[in-house]
Design brief:
- The complex is a heterodimer of chains A (about 290) and B (about 220).
- Chain A is α/β, with parallel strands linked by helices and about 290 residues long.
- Chain A contains 11 helices and 6 strands.
- Chain B is extended and about 75 Å long.
- With about 220 residues, chain B is mainly α.
- Chain B has 7 helices and no strands.
- Classes of the chains: A alpha/beta (about 290), B mainly alpha (about 220).
- At the A-B interface, helix 2, helix 4, helix 6, helix 8 and helix 9 of A face helix 2, helix 4 and helix 6 of B.
């Protein structure tokens, strides 16, 4: 028994890596899908807010991330775009992160094409602009001055849908998919608190806890936190009567390995603690 | 040559090389690491020139309709001052540029940061604990008790004994719960990245192997 406890306490870290890898690979290989019930969470608040936007509304969607956080944020982008396009909301994309513009254009083009939405009539991607919060303040006085052309260098005046926008306040809401700084805090500070534009969005799980205070104060209308938030939004979008037969998203598929891996980690934490206290007791260290 | 498959294979082999570090340090990992650092640096230089310097500075100094806008020489000089840091004799010039950046940032952020992160949060903490459903009342109570006891923990002008000590202990407990939740979210984030990369390897890379070997559908 003592030998086993000692082995548990000195488990080779590579065994832990293998266990975690298996806990991810096996559910993915088996195609396991766990139920993902969505309660009264910030994800539902965001979904309900977007759902309440009337057809023809406008949303500024900012892709503030890069490929390193794609597994969490790209599924959010896809689900949000499906929801917005399905409700006939016009979407203008932009990015506070350089690579976000390309990732955003890919998502908008792919979802837009699948739902019959036309570039420059239903959506367009303005591209990336440096400056973070300072640039957002400038958007409040004139968007065209900041983005004289879109990402593909098409002049503002030649894009029909952009005629309706002159400042940030012309949008019904701003959605930011944020992997860090600049991201959601800059949008809340400059677009939300300064210009009164409602802000919602999604973020990586690492940064989610720091944004929860903004939900309580209403500075954020809703929030998707990490893969769970993305899975929530995919579930809510798929549950809608208009989405019958829609394919499941990557986030929902990722929640089964996520759950199994969490169980394995919890088990390892318990094992580590049992080994630690047993060892201490054996040596007479626990009073 | 199928460029898409080539891209998938490069991505997959580099991913596996990086994961090989989990076993132990090895030449494959070192190669992938150095390639990543070098390519990132090169990519960022070009990206910054094309997407920041050219549209925001050069094309404004020399507009497409012709002419020369002399005012844009000033940011160019400040940019040069930033680079002066690498020459010890004139390194002091970089302070001018840094001072301008810090000053503009502080001036712009002072009011906004205070409004967003202090005033609005204080306002959000002043809530009624007797309104709404039983759950909402409980949530409000937890918020109020959590904020007060958390603040008491950081109040060092009085010894943490008696009622102050008890409240401070409650405060540190609530802080620990918050840190625990934050740590849990961090684990979820790291696992999400592993899941994303596993999905890529299993559903995008592995299916290309039979295609290359001519077992499956055409490439």
């Amino acid at each position: 028994m003592a030998g086993m406890i000692e082995k548990m306490g000195n488990l080779d870290r590579r065994i832990i890596f293998i266990l975690i890898a298996l806990s991810v690979i096996i559910p993915l290989a088996l195609g396991l899908i766990f139920p993902n019930p969505v309660g009264a969470e910030p994800s539902r608040a965001l979904f309900d807010y977007v759902e309440a936007l009337p057809a023809g509304s406008s949303v500024l969607l900012s892709f503030d991330y890069d490929p390193s956080t794609m597994p969490e944020l790209q599924p959010m982008a896809m689900a949000m775009l499906q929801h917005l396009f399905r409700n006939d909301v016009k979407v203008v994309g932009m990015a506070l992160w350089p690579m976000g513009a390309s990732l955003g254009q890919d998502a908008m083009s792919s979802v837009g094409d699948s739902l019959g939405k036309v570039q420059y009539e239903d959506w367009c991607m303005l591209g990336y602009k440096t400056g973070g919060g300072v640039m957002i303040v400038r958007l409040g006085s004139g968007i065209q001055a900041v983005f004289p052309t879109d990402k593909d260098n098409v002049p503002w005046s030649e894009i029909p849908m952009l005629a309706a926008y002159s400042t940030l306040q012309d949008f019904d809401m701003v959605l930011s998919l944020s992997a860090g700084d600049p991201g959601i805090p800059a949008w809340i500070m400059m677009a939300g608190d300064r210009f009164g534009v409602p802000i919602g969005g999604g973020c990586t799980a690492v940064s989610a806890p720091q944004f929860y205070p903004y939900l309580g104060t209403g500075q954020l209308v809703g929030l998707l936190g990490g893969l769970k938030g993305a899975a929530d939004y995919e579930t809510l979008v798929r549950e809608h009567p208009d989405a019958v037969g829609a394919e499941g998203g990557r986030a929902v598929a990722g929640m089964a390995p996520q759950s199994v891996a969490h169980l394995v980690i919890m088990l390892l934490i318990v094992m580590g603690n049992v080994a630690y206290f047993a060892e201490k007791k054996r040596k007479g260290g626990v009073k | 040559m199928n460029w898409e498959i080539l891209g998938i294979w490069i991505g997959a082999l580099l991913s596996l090389s990086l994961y090989s570090f989990l076993y132990r340090d090895n030449p494959f990992y070192k190669f992938a690491e150095h390639l990543f650092v070098g390519m990132s640096a090169g990519y960022w230089v070009i990206y910054t020139i094309e997407n920041v310097l050219k549209p925001n500075w050069w094309q404004r100094m020399f507009p497409a309709e012709g002419g020369f806008q002399i005012v844009w020489v000033i940011p160019g000089i400040f940019a040069f001052f930033m680079l002066a840091r690498i020459v010890p004799k004139i390194a002091g010039l970089s302070r001018l540029a840094l001072g301008m950046i810090v000053g503009a940032g502080a001036g712009l952020g002072m009011v906004s940061v205070f409004q967003t992160n202090a005033l609005a949060q204080v306002e959000g903490s002043i809530i009624s604990i007797s309104a709404g459903s039983a759950f909402e009342m409980f949530s409000s109570l937890v918020l109020v008790v959590g904020v007060v006891s958390g603040l008491v923990y950081f109040f060092f002008s009085k010894e943490h004994t008696g009622i102050i000590g008890g409240t401070a202990n409650l405060g540190i407990t609530i802080l620990m719960v918050a840190f625990g939740a934050s740590f849990g979210y961090t684990i979820m984030a790291r696992l999400s990245l592993l899941i994303g990369q596993s999905q890529f390897l299993m559903f995008e890379w592995l299916p290309t192997i039979p295609r290359i070997l001519g077992i499956g559908g055409g490439a």
